[in-house]
Structure formats: C-alpha cells, structure tokens
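Chapter summary example.
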Amino acid sequence: MGETTTAGPGPVMGRRERKKAATRKALADAALELFLERGFDEVSIRDVAEAADVSTTTLFKHFPSKEALVFDLDADQEAALVAAVRDRTPGTSIPRALRAHTLAARVFRAEYDEQITAFHRLINSTPALIEYYRRMWMRHERALAETIAADLGAPADDPACAALAHFALEARALAGTADPEAAVNAAFDLLEKGWEAVRPRS
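The structure predicted for these 202 residues follows.
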C-alpha cells in the first residue's frame, strides 16, 4: 500500500509491463489483506503466493522480502519525491514544491482514512515493519537531500539540504492531527519563512 501522491498519466506500458504490474499489484493486495486479517507474523510467503495464485518464485521476482510486500510503492514514493524537486515549475522554490507534493498525498483524502489507519496500525504493531519503514524513509530522505543539493549546486552531504529534506518528510507525520492540511501548511510556512516570520507576536 504505502502513501503516495496523485500523478498525471505516465508512458503507455506494453503488454508485458502491464502483466508484471498487475501481478505485482495482486501480490501486494493479497498480502495486505492477509496481514490485516491475521497479523504480519502469522502469514507466510507461501500464503501470499497462494492467495495471489502465483508461485513463491514469482513472488520473489517482484518482492525481495515479506516486509517489501507492505511497502510496494517504496520506489514510486522516492521517485515522486525526487521529481517534485527536479521537475518543479521554474520560479517555484524547493520548499513550495515539497509542500504541494506533501499535500497531494492521498493520506489527506477522507476516503482513505480507514485504510490509512489500518495500514499504520499494522506497521506500528509489527517490529519488523517498523524497522523496514525506518530504513526505507532514511533512503528517501537521503535521495531527497542529494537531489536538493544537486539542484543548488551544493555538496551532496550539505547539512542545510539534509535538514530541509528531513523536515519536509517529517511534515507528513502531521497528517494525524485534527486539521492535517493546516498543520502541514504551518510546517512549510516555517520552512519557507523561518520562525521569526511566522511566530505569534507578543
């Protein structure tokens, strides 16, 4: 499942690519349904393969581990983050582009509330998934920081670029507040303008 953003139409896939995408989706959907029903640790790779009507060999061609089945949009998420910076409209600041990307995530759409809640409950109740999620998000953060640095002509390990990437990604955690959109906008106001510009005046 994972949390992703809306996107425009991509390139038309050939028959083979469509079949691979359909198999991958069937595996991820079957896995998530089983994990939510029984618990992650109570479901085997064989259970998932049988539910999707494929062999375990086929499953491992699409997913390197059981944990990866839960985060099937991992690569898409990272690519979308990089594209939000790299392909932004000329004249758009990096924080503004990342704000728009964050607010476009489907986690902010009411129709996904129940699914998102169940998804996060599964992750937070499973140590293996918590660790996988942590490693995945660190990869995304590193890729985003390096993209920001490249865009600015800064060193790949520039601390300011790393900080912007970190806090931009952390802003998504505010989706759990009563008004997630307002909370995310407040976070990005801070990133764009600084504390002195947004703090209440005494």
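To summarize the output: The CA atoms of residues 93 and 192 lie 9 Å apart.
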